[in-house]
Specification:
The complex is a heterodimer of chains A (797) and B (610). Chain A is of the alpha/beta class. In chain A, 34% of the residues lie in helices and 15% in strands. In chain B, a hairpin with a 2-residue loop joins strand 6 and strand 7. Classes of the chains: A alpha/beta (797), B alpha+beta (610).
Chain lengths: 797, 610
């Protein structure tokens, strides 16, 4: 709860304020009203009832104020609030803001600013009595008009006595701090300025020049939040109940040090209500939207959801019970039960132990930071707390602290680290459940001079002289250094590093900006940057509120944007370094494919080279063992079936075989056929009796079909001859019955008619099945790919 | 938003929205864990251990416990159960003495209950399934691999938990032993691993090197023979250590360009490496039928009572007592600060990133080649130099369309393996910096002198209570653990939920043992000096304020007990409490206090009526 505020705004509206300047710029009257507007705007945003203002205009023709009598306090007009004319102070509303935006009034008389100050003090005294108020006076004046200085010392004393913060904004005043001196002043102004400067000093107030004030106020300050404790309770070390002498129990107060200021959320407005004619609008309901919730069965026929009258069946809220998923099951868990069974905790901050500050990774801070201070007024608590914090600071330790805000609140785990002034900062850190151990491929090898290392095998195999007539031969140097697929570097490694360093140096922010005193300082300190979203939203709201008839929104205030844009000087300074850095790498923008939304993404991702995928892929590792990190959504069903199998297993050989043959990324047909041959031999020779013959036969049928379709007939035919031989001699003769099945099912050599790459005639194929075994020599017709008996036997081991 | 329940639903809506955004771009197919328990059912397994539980039952309990963990962690993982050395046979291949109890399936409540029944009913098991030594381990493997391939999970790990007492199966039968080896090799080729759970019966130790050490695919087998599997009972214990952690799928939260300079842009993807894990969403059921209920939200115009389509609605904010209305597209226009992206503003030293500069959990970025090829290469060098030079990058981040811009610091993270053996990925942590608006001022606190002697004593205390090998993964969220246990108890129709081991509670006994003396010394030293001046001033707070016509009362004079509230409520005099007191009371009853005093009073009245 913030304390009450009462602010007196005194504006000089004497004719002198409206004097035009040569440049045709704004008059002091306009500038004063702009500043006034910002003050009111910043009070209207939080909209606190206890933050109230009074507005006094000096120099009006009429005199309307509580002290005006006879010759006293003339030409001062107090703003009169519509709803309560007698009130001295009121919460500022839109009417007042609009009035100020219009420039209030153009005074025609001459009023005394000092009179207004005395009047303001009187009003504050009357309004605030002895209650606790934050009292402020702002005076906007050019001091061009006579000021009665009599008794000003007493007034200044009164300002201090009432503890009023006095602010004087003097237009065209000298500003010695910035070396600004206005020449050609009127004598009156020179005297008044001198007097007001002295008065402000005696009243321990602040004096701003008009320029300073504009600058300060244009930077819209967000609502200032009064510090409130979020926790008052014990910080304990050990168990004070069982070991009072051997434990610490320090009463502490905890504040938010940071708290993300959320943008104000909009409420819903009914556009349909706008059709109601103005006279019939009811202020309370006009435009309001009511949310209605109803509950319907989630499943079942549409008919079942209707009752006898065809109305939708609704379930009353009282009949609802919450349920959580436990595996596939939804477990009803009423909120009463949940409440009754929940974890019981007791309020407090308890230290679990101490860790090195460096052991808590910076990115583990989960939320806003809290400030922990010893209970005010308790010197014992202060001493114990500060000493403990000092010990932590010297040892560079942090305390691991469990924090329970109120009894039975969810406990949080956090670290308490030493902060300045002996305070502690506390920030929540993750529980085990909050950690997400995602894995990412390392990037280090892209830094090496030669990034080809991991691809060396590939490079060698493509260069193997399988074809001697290959005409184009790359120079050995370039061909042996095939770069990693993701290596986009165009210059040697150390050169790239140097250019990166130069860029980093050029874009340094440590001394990038100058403060008011000309000292260099760090740019983009959090304390210098205001939330642009928040500023923008209220700029638009205020604009629309004052100009409801204007359809367009005001342009973004460039000052708002500037605080989150790169600093032009810095960008310029880094230009050449950035150019050089850019040339060191080959970066290409990927052409966007047409389409939008998820579909377009899916299409893109199907084609993209994913860094993680490429980096994670071992060059020759079996597919099954690879950890696939990110599988893009399959584009269609073919993708789903084309899984990355690289080996035909004995468990489900047909699926594996089909998958390998069906792969679109690499051609594995030959490999698949070879492996399938091996598997069939294995199945047959290891079968207990005829147990696996069926499986092997099925494989054989598939193998034959695929071989015929994929120009692998020769390989198949040779292998089948070998199989026939194998099953007719030696140890494997006991599996001869398998061959009889082959004959029975007429699975023979692939003929010329079936596949172009075969030279076997239909007759030869038939003869092959009929004939008893031929000697191996007859099988091979000088073909290099022949399958030897030894090979087949080797496969069995 | 007059009552607590309404407030509640509002907040949930917002949370859901956020979650949805998080889930937006991509969802990965998670790696699934498929496990088959292959349990030896030969006679020695039915002998009881010192606790009177048979080894066979122990294995089943372990399996049940495994399922209970799985059901919370990852609902899509599969589990199967095969007995071998049984008298009866039940499997697709027609192998003798192998009994497939469960095919691979996702964990569910019925299976857990069934398993527990099985574990507790020895007679039924031994009579219905029986025992026989005449099995073939090769066929056991064959059966398992068939179950795996029927399970059909493509991206998965496949494990067989082999629970047996027999360290030398098929002694003397070289053919069977050879077959077993061949099959094991097959399994290994398929990426199926075998985890051995050696059961030690009586004083017979399980000799790993007799047979299993040479079996391919067995975890711990092969050249590196130093690693002998822990005994089954030890392994059970490990499994009993319940860590209920819902596994999360890897997903990006944003995918944006990173503009380093004009014309120098690369692509990055953002992830959340830390994020508060919650209970998970609840669904409403109809209390009477336990049928799932869906919530239908509609909107109505208060003035005309017409129902509203989304296109019929605009937005308003209250400003200076008036409603200021904007259309949806105007609202988007107000929120638009540029396209999504990270814009580099410059670099600072690492120490410029102070501890207090934190408002929310960090994100993590990693290069993305999909928009800009070459991104990974540039990113790697960028990361390397900033990391080596101890620098951070300051950027402006607009994470999504129409998201509010934030100032962030990119904190370089080189990939490594930390001392706890966890992999630390390489990339940048994205730390959200506070704006000036997010920064709060802290009132000055009581000053106090501290002496170096006292500090030294305090350092002793700190030193003796240092947590060795601190790791965030050692601290589970007790609220979630309790919630899962409660759910489990209700789902499995138990009377009581299991107690949790709350690792976030201080181990006070151990602390006193280690540091009690030192804490006492520290306290005494402080006490001696202050003997005379332990005066606790009454803090001047606004709580000390005038109530009831100027009669001043301090907070301590006001009776804030529940009975006092009840009495005042009865007399209709609740308004004599301050808003803060009323709020405090409601908070202590776990009710979310309203803002207005009148609402607070009504809330308390409702509380006492209930």
């Amino acid at each position: 709860m913030a304390s009450k505020e009462a602010t007196v705004l005194i504006v000089d509206v004497n004719p002198s304020m409206r004097r035009k300047k040569e440049e045709g710029g704004k008059t002091n009257h306009q500038r004063a009203h702009e500043a006034l507007f910002q003050i009111l705007h910043s009070k209207i945003i939080p909209g606190r009832k206890t933050d109230q203002v009074a507005l006094l205009l000096v120099g009006t023709e009429e005199s309307d104020n509580i002290l005006a009598e006879g010759e006293q306090y003339q030409h001062i007009k107090a703003y009169c609030f519509e709803e309560d004319e007698a009130a001295l102070f009121k919460q500022p509303n839109l009417e007042l803001l609009k009035y100020v935006e219009r420039g209030t009034e153009e005074g025609t008389a001459i009023g005394d600013v000092m009179d207004a100050i005395i009047l303001g003090l009187h009003m504050l005294e009357q309004h605030c009595r002895k209650l606790k108020y934050e009292k402020k006076i702002y005076v906007f004046t050019d001091a061009e008009n006579p000021v009665d200085t009599e008794g000003s010392d007493a007034v200044a004393e009164k300002v201090k006595e009432l503890a009023v913060t006095f602010n004087l904004i003097g237009y065209d005043f000298d500003d010695p701090d910035h070396g600004i001196k206005h020449e050609h002043k009127s004598d009156v102004k020179a005297i008044n300025e001198e007097f007001l400067r002295g008065f402000t000093e005696r009243a321990e107030g602040n004096l701003f020049s008009g320029d300073e004030a504009s600058e300060l106020l244009e930077r819209l300050r967000s609502k200032s939040v009064k510090p409130v404790t979020v926790f008052r309770g014990p910080l304990t070390l050990g168990d004070p109940e069982s070991h009072p002498a051997e434990s610490l129990e320090i009463p502490v107060w905890v504040y938010n040090k940071t708290a993300e200021m959320k943008l104000p959320s909009a409420k819903k407005w009914s556009a349909l209500a706008e059709a109601i004619s103005e006279g019939e609008r009811n202020g309370a309901t006009y435009g309001e939207v009511e949310m209605q919730r109803s509950y319907k069965p989630a499943l079942g026929d549409a008919d079942l959801q209707k009752d006898q009258n065809g109305q939708d069946k609704s379930i009353s809220k009282d009949d609802l019970v919450r349920a959580y998923r436990y595996g596939k099951t939804l477990v009803p868990f009423s909120s009463e039960d949940e409440e009754a069974m929940k974890l019981r905790t007791s309020k407090g901050m308890s230290i679990l132990g101490f860790v090195k500050q460096s052991e808590v990774p910076r990115h583990h801070l989960m939320a806003n930071v809290l400030a922990v201070v010893p209970e005010p007024g308790n010197s014992r608590a202060a001493q114990t707390f500060y000493t403990l914090i000092a010990a932590l600071d010297e040892k560079q330790n942090a305390a691991l602290v469990r924090y329970v805000r109120v009894n039975d609140a969810n406990p949080k785990l956090g670290v308490l680290v030493p902060a300045r002034k002996g305070w502690g900062w506390w920030a929540q850190i993750p529980f085990a459940e909050d950690l997400r151990p995602y894995s990412f491929a390392p990037l280090d090898h892209l830094l090496a001079e030669d990034t080809s290392a991991s691809n060396s095998t590939l490079a060698v195999s493509t260069l193997s002289p399988s074809n001697n007539t290959q005409s184009h031969t790359d120079s050995p140097a370039s061909s042996s250094k095939k770069k990693h697929k993701l290596d986009a570097r165009q210059v040697p490694a150390d050169e790239a590093m140097r250019r990166m360093d130069a860029f980093i140096d050029a874009m340094d922010l440590t001394d990038a900006v100058e403060d008011e005193d000309g000292h260099k300082r760090e740019a983009f300190r959090p304390k210098d940057v205001f939330n642009p979203g928040w500023q923008r939203i209220y700029q638009c709201i205020a604009y629309r509120a004052i100009h409801p008839d204007k359809a367009e929104l005001p342009p973004v205030n460039p000052q708002i944007m500037a605080c989150i844009e790169p600093i032009p000087d810095v960008v310029e300074r880094a230009k050449s370094a950035a150019e050089k850095l850019k040339d060191a790498f080959k970066i290409t923008r990927v052409e966007k494919q047409k389409g939008s939304g998820k579909r377009a993404w899916a299409a893109r991702s199907a084609n993209r080279i994913d860094a993680e995928e490429v980096l994670n892929r071992p060059d020759n590792g079996p597919a099954e063992k690879r950890i696939k990190v990110e599988e893009p959504m399959p584009e269609n069903l073919t993708d789903l079936t084309a899984r990355n199998v690289e080996k035909v297993s004995t468990v489900d050989p047909i699926s594996d075989f089909n998958a390998m043959v069906g792969r679109r990324d690499i051609d594995l047909v030959t490999k698949a056929v070879e492996q399938m041959c091996e598997v069939i031999v294995k199945l047959v020779t290891e079968s207990f009796g005829d147990q696996l013959y069926d499986k092997a036969t099925n494989c054989l049928v598939v193998l034959r079909k695929v071989s015929a379709e994929n120009d692998e007939s020769d390989q198949f035919n040779n292998w089948l001859r070998g199989l026939k031989h194998l099953l007719s001699v030696g140890e494997s003769v006991r599996h001869a019955p398998f061959w009889r099945r082959v004959v029975d099912q007429q699975i023979s050599l692939i003929t010329k008619d079936e596949a172009g790459d075969s030279n076997v005639t239909r007759e030869e194929a038939d003869a092959f099945l009929r004939a008893e075994d031929e000697p191996p020599a007859a099988i091979s017709k000088g073909d290099e790919d022949e399958v030897e008996e030894e090979d087949l036997l080797d496969m069995m081991d | 938003m007059s009552s607590y329940s309404n407030w509640n639903t509002f907040e949930e809506e917002e949370e859901e929205e956020e979650e949805e955004q998080d889930a937006s771009i991509e969802v990965d197919i998670a790696e699934r864990d498929n496990v088959i328990f292959a349990v030896d059912a030969t006679l020695p397994m039915h002998e009881t251990d010192e606790n009177g539980i048979s080894h066979f039952s122990g294995a089943l309990r372990c399996a049940a416990r495994f399922l209970q963990n799985k059901i919370v962690q990852s609902e899509s993982d599969l589990m199967g159960l095969v007995f071998f050395g049984t008298n009866e046979s039940h499997n697709e291949q027609g192998f003798k003495h192998i009994y497939v109890q469960y095919d691979l399936d996702v964990p569910d409540v019925d299976r857990i209950l069934d398993l527990e029944k099985l574990a507790n009913n020895r007679d039924k098991v031994s009579t219905e399934i029986g025992s026989s030594d005449d099995y073939s381990l090769a066929e056991v493997f064959w059966t398992c691999s068939n179950l795996f391939s029927a399970g059909g999970q493509k991206v998965s790990t496949k494990r067989i938990f082999l629970i047996t007492h027999n360290d030398s199966p098929h002694t003397g039968n070289l053919t069977l032993q050879r077959n077993a080896r061949v099959r094991a090799q097959d399994l290994q080729d398929l990426g199926i691993s075998i985890e051995l759970f050696p059961v030690e019966i009586g004083n017979n130790s399980f000799k790993f090197d007799v047979f299993f050490q040479d079996l391919p695919g067995v975890v711990g087998a092969g050249e590196d023979s130093a690693e002998v599997p822990a005994s089954a009972s030890r392994k059970y214990e490990e499994m009993q250590k319940k860590i209920l952690r819902r596994e999360t799928k890897k997903r990006t939260t944003f995918r944006v360009p990173l503009h380093l300079h004009e014309g120098l842009t690369i692509g990055v993807k953002g992830y959340n490496l830390v994020l508060e894990q919650r209970k998970g969403n609840y669904t409403y059921l109809d209390r009477r039928t336990n049928a799932e209920v869906r919530t239908v939200t509609t909107w109505a115009c208060s003035a005309t009572a017409q129902s509203l389509l989304p296109t019929d609605m605009k937005s308003y904010w209250v400003y200076g007592g008036q409603k200021v209305v904007f259309t949806k597209s105007e609202v988007n226009g107000i929120k638009y600060f540029g396209d999504p992206g990270l814009v580099l503003l410059g670099f600072k030293d690492r120490h410029a990133l102070k501890f207090k500069y934190n408002v929310k959990h960090a994100a993590f970025i990693y290069p993305d080649e999909s928009e800009y090829t070459g991104s990974t290469s540039v990113f790697a060098h960028f990361l390397e130099r900033l990391s080596i030079r101890g620098k951070i990058a300051i950027c402006r981040l607009i994470a999504r369309r129409n998201a509010a811009p934030r100032l962030v610091a990119l904190l370089p993270q080189k990939g490594c393996v930390d001392k706890n053996g966890d992999e630390i990925p390489c990339g940048f942590h994205v730390i959200y910096l506070p704006f000036e608006d997010d920064n709060r001022r802290i009132p000055a606190s009581t000053a106090s002198q501290i002496s170096p002697e006292h500090t030294d004593l305090a350092k002793e205390v700190v030193h003796s209570l240092v947590i060795k090998n601190y790791d965030a993964a050692n601290y589970e969220n007790p609220v979630l653990q309790k919630h899962y246990n409660n759910l489990q108890a209700i789902a499995l129709r138990r009377d009581f939920a299991e107690e949790i081991d709350d690792t976030t509670l201080p181990r006070t006994e151990a602390m006193h043992k280690r540091a009690g003396d030192r804490i006492r010394d520290f306290k005494q030293a402080l006490g001696e000096q202050e003997e005379d001046e332990v005066v606790v001033e009454q803090p001047k707070t606004k709580r000390v304020k005038a109530v009831d016509g100027g009669q001043k009362r301090s907070k301590s004079d006001v009776d804030l007990s529940e009975s006092a509230f009840r009495a005042k409520c009865k007399d209709g005099k609740l308004s004599s409490f301050t808003v803060a007191q009323l709020s405090e009371f409601l908070l202590s009853k776990d009710r979310k206090p309203a803002k207005k005093k009148s609402d607070l009073i009504r809330q308390i009245e409702e509380y006492f009526e209930a």
